[in-house]
Amino acid sequence: MAVPVGRPILGAVISMLRYLFRKLPISPWQKKYLKYMYFRSMAAIGRDAFPALFDIDRKMLKYLPGTNGTFIEVGANDGISQSNTWYLEAYRGWSGLLIEPVPELAKLAKRFRKTPVANVALGAMASDGDTLTLSVSDLTTTVANGKKDRSGAAAKQITVPIRALSALLTEHGISKVDFFSLDVEGFELPVLQGLDFDTHRPRYILVETEQAPEVEAYLKPWYDLKDTLTFHDYLFEARSTE
């Protein structure tokens, strides 16, 4: 009887990728491809793999046990690195919308993920249709200020369109959202101000923020703080509308 070789071969590939990632002096962009190959191989052999920081994606399974749900991930990066939604897509059949303002990262997310990707920045309702200038290097993205990142690499400036989140969701035909992951490095409130909670009220909102009191106060009319997953990751649950 023939012995299947797919799983052993993929296991060897995974071991090789781990070695290359640790040992080779490769660029941040090359590391992104290695991460993609690693996590895709893990999924192919049916082994759980969680790319999010601090096990956030694993922790969220307590609140998101079902399959075929709908997510939004804002600050999606390349779709794999530190993603809070990759596991849901790869293992649970979820889909939704990834939002990433940096064109190079958005292109990678389109390659690495099945979920649609919007290459825009998000802002308040009043800023929908405006533009935002960002400073981008290999490792960081900030509002343009001419600074260099920690690696010493010179940052380049890019201009991206600003959209209000509810307008974007309507364009993509998304009405019900089970999970909204938000990681925008200090711009949480403008993004939330672009969400019409009468039209789009995600069941759970996970916010990475250093402005927790301000975010909680803004969400208070619609949400309760459900859990603190890390020292700066806060999970809010929508109150019942019944």
UniProtKB/TrEMBL annotation:
Any one Gene Ontology cellular component term annotated for this protein:
cytoplasm
Q: Name one GO molecular function term.
A: methyltransferase activity
Domain (Methyltransferase FkbM): give its ranges.
Answer: 73-213
Among the GO biological process terms of this entry, one is: endoplasmic reticulum to Golgi vesicle-mediated transport
- Pfam families per the UniProt record, alphabetical: Methyltransf_21 (PF05050)
Q: Which domain of life is it from?
A: Bacteria
The alphabetized UniProt keywords are: Methyltransferase, Transferase
Q: What InterPro entries does the entry give?
A: EGF_Rcpt_Signaling_Reg, FkbM_mtfrase, SAM-dependent_MTases_sf
Q: What is this protein called?
A: FkbM family methyltransferase
Give the originating organism: Ancylobacter pratisalsi
